[in-house]
Amino acid sequence: MRVAGVVLAAGRSSRMGENKLLLPVGGESLVRRAVRAAIEAGLDPVLAVLGHDAGHVRAELAGLACVAVPSPRYALGMNASLDAGIAAVPADASAAVVLLGDMPLVTPAMIGALLERHRASPGAPVSSRYGAVPAPPALYPRALFPELRGGEGDGRGREVLRAHASEVVWVDWPGSALEDVDEPADLERARKGEGR
To answer: Which of 86, 144, 164, 187 is within CB 3.0–4.6 Å of 140 for a Cys-Cys bond?
Structure first.
């Protein structure tokens, strides 16, 4: 079964003060690292949703087997970019894994674990959980795509998982594997954690 990857990489990085997706962790920019992990995990196609500074982000992805998807409403929040990404998932994909471009500790093996659970329970949403904290990557079966579409702001993916809490299959990771980069201190922690 074909599972697409949707990498959300459209945000403005307002707390970082510069485009965080272009900053390096482990010798590779955050966005390139996220997209490469999705490709190496076998997601097909991998859709990189771009908005702010799209030209530079697209250039950073040169040579990777991914499809750039514009998010014209990216300034309205992550939900608008999620909408654009889910709309671009091909009709023959049974599900989509949603990843964030600023979570550098997510590995191909972590994404692969979601795919294994999906194969065992094809109709269920599958989400990562770090200690007690649910966070991406998360896999949504096609039946849930309409619930991921539309709107503004942030948190739609989390809301959909909450609405289907009794169906969610969890994949557990240590709390130390959860690192999203919003501020300079986060970037330093991610660079240290990358070596673990």
So the answer is: 144
